[in-house]
User: Fold NAD(P)-dependent oxidoreductase from Tigheibacillus halophilus.
Amino acid sequence: MNRIGFVGLGNMGMPMSKGLMKDGYEVIGYDLNDKAMVAFHKAGGKIAKNTIELAKQSELVFTSLPSTKAAEAVYLGEDGLLEHCADTTTLVDTSTIAPEMNQKIAEAAKEKGIPFLAAPVSGGVVGAENQTLTVMVGGPKGVYEHVLPVLNVIGGNVFFVNEQIDSGTTVKLINNLLIGFYTAGVSEALHIANKKNIDLDYLFDMMNVSYGQSRIYDRNYNTFIAKNDYRPGFAMKLLLKDLGFAMEVADANELDLPISKALHELYTTVVDEEGYAEKDMAALYERVKLQSEQKEAAK
Ligand SMILES: NC(=O)c1ccc[n+]([C@@H]2O[C@H](COP(=O)([O-])OP(=O)(O)OC[C@H]3O[C@@H](n4cnc5c(N)ncnc54)[C@H](O)[C@@H]3O)[C@@H](O)[C@H]2O)c1
Assistant:
């Protein structure tokens, strides 16, 4: 398994594929975005003209795609991976997409005898760059064991959840539901501190040795809020996508989750109506501040 294909060379796919190259794998990449292809080529990767060419040349293919629709096109489309790769090629989707699409792809892969895993990741761009991602894998255990040496290259913490294809996605959605909670909590808590003239750096130091500490507080504050720079990172629209999937799982299982529902509504408004889609999720703090200032000004 020396020749690896990588479809989707974005914020996550690019550093993941670079990590594979660093560890001596030959990586063949494809992305719809020409700029990403040029950057990938500069980093030492081989460019494929399309997914057909990539499928034919790879023994293992990873995908890192922004949406369920993109995954459907890349796996199930006419030019897609399942149509054009050999049954000796293993496919691993690291995107976070709708659990039903994990199942749809797995069924189509099974019909063609092509090994497939749904293996979403957590740890962000930094984790991808440092090859320390958490990888949450669902699918056949034998396939997992076969590709484990390569999964260990992209991730520092690789977990096999169970043989249900969407089990890794369920764990990932739980993770992102918690991220949504913490991000909203940090935003509102820091707003109180601001109002009460408490220095935010000093607050961080105090919370850092108290139970109010969290990895999301650390990330959102130190990397984004303290620098007043909200380039993603993890774009707010991607968090909303994952919260939407978590709510679909909740609805399908008739779970009553009032706080999660309120959070989903909040992020929907922020993304769809207030222009925060492309900003890092930490920008929710900016929005909380702005809304409160607008309310005060209207008094
Ligand atoms: N950014 C993060 O911190 C993070 C962390 C963990 C997981 N994820 C998940 O990883 C996935 C990718 O996230 P990202 O932040 O890298 O997104 P991104 O938008 O930066 O990258 C996605 C890339 O896929 C390409 N693409 C889209 N459709 C394509 C197609 N049909 N064929 C080829 N390329 C196509 C895009 O051009 C883009 O370069 C998402 O599912 C996201 O939820 C992201």
